[in-house]
């Protein structure tokens, strides 16, 4: 199996834990908790900032010395309603207690103490259409460049209808040459509807030194250390993914693959 494809190591509790050291890069970390009512998860942020995304379900949060109450509203991610999220800076702690079955994504990157803890969404997040034809998909921007919520993190959700492509036309963000392109590592946390469906993701460089095509299943994570990284959802299978990006600067600039430049 590809080293870029990470399958969950269970269906309950902490089911993913990807660190920069584990991924072989410098910035992005990603973990996932799947909790039952009454169960809890807690972590210290250390040198990282964190965005906690309530993918599904409800949980009560205490973080950075404050009680944030119960976050979460959608019980199925494919409801496509805006997510409830919580930003926690570096040098803090957080704790979540599940109020229902819930899925909590933990998105991490280096923090510099430049932002205070805050709620993100659902207010201010609206489902936005992007692309056209078979490239149409729908975006919930959680903390992209326009939202000055974080020191390093860029986080967004994407819903790809059955039979459509996304993260396409193929593009890369693997050089530090702003404003032409920025270096951003990226993780994709995938969900499928129905749950026994599958989708494909290709990660490839222009010179062919990296070229992998992966069949992704429900709850898989794909690492994108460099290169282009399009996703395709077969007819009959709807695809969701949560993107986490970070690099030396908090800007998203990319270059298309030569074979699709005319499609941009």
UniProtKB/TrEMBL annotation:
Keyword match Isomerase: yes
Top enzyme category: isomerase
Highest taxon of the lineage: Bacteria
SUPFAM superfamilies found in the cross-reference section: RmlC-like cupins
Keyword Isomerase attached: yes
EC number of the protein: 5.3.1.30
Annotated keywords: Isomerase
Record-level Gene Ontology MF annotations: 5-deoxy-D-glucuronate isomerase activity
Protein name (database record): 5-deoxy-glucuronate isomerase
């Amino acid at each position: 199996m590809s080293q870029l494809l990470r399958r969950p190591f269970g269906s309950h509790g902490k089911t993913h834990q990807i660190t920069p050291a584990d991924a072989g890069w410098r910035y992005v970390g990603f973990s996932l908790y799947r909790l039952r009512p009454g169960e809890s998860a807690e972590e210290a942020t250390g040198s990282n900032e964190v965005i906690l995304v309530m993918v599904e379900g409800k949980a009560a949060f205490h973080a950075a010395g404050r009680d944030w109450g119960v976050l979460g509203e959608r019980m199925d991610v494919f409801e496509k309603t805006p997510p409830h999220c919580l930003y926690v800076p570096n040098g803090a702690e957080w704790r979540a207690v599940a109020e229902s079955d819930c899925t909590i994504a933990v998105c991490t990157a280096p923090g510099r103490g430049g932002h205070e803890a805050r709620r993100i969404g659902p207010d201010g997040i609206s489902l936005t259409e992007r692309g056209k034809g078979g490239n149409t998909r729908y975006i919930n921007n959680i903390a992209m460049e326009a939202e000055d919520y974080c020191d390093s993190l860029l986080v967004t959700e994407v819903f790809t209808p059955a039979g459509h492509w996304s993260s396409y036309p193929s593009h890369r963000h693997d050089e530090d040459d702003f404003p032409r392109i920025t270096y951003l590592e990226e993780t994709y946390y995938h969900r499928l509807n129905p749950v026994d469906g599958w989708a494909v993701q290709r990660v490839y460089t222009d010179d062919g030194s990296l070229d992998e095509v992966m069949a992704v299943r429900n709850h898989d994570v794909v690492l994108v250390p460099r290169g282009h990284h399009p996703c395709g959802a077969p007819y009959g299978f709807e695809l969701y993914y949560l993107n986490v990006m970070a690099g030396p600067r908090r800007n998203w600039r990319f270059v298309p693959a030569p074979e699709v430049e005319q499609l941009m």
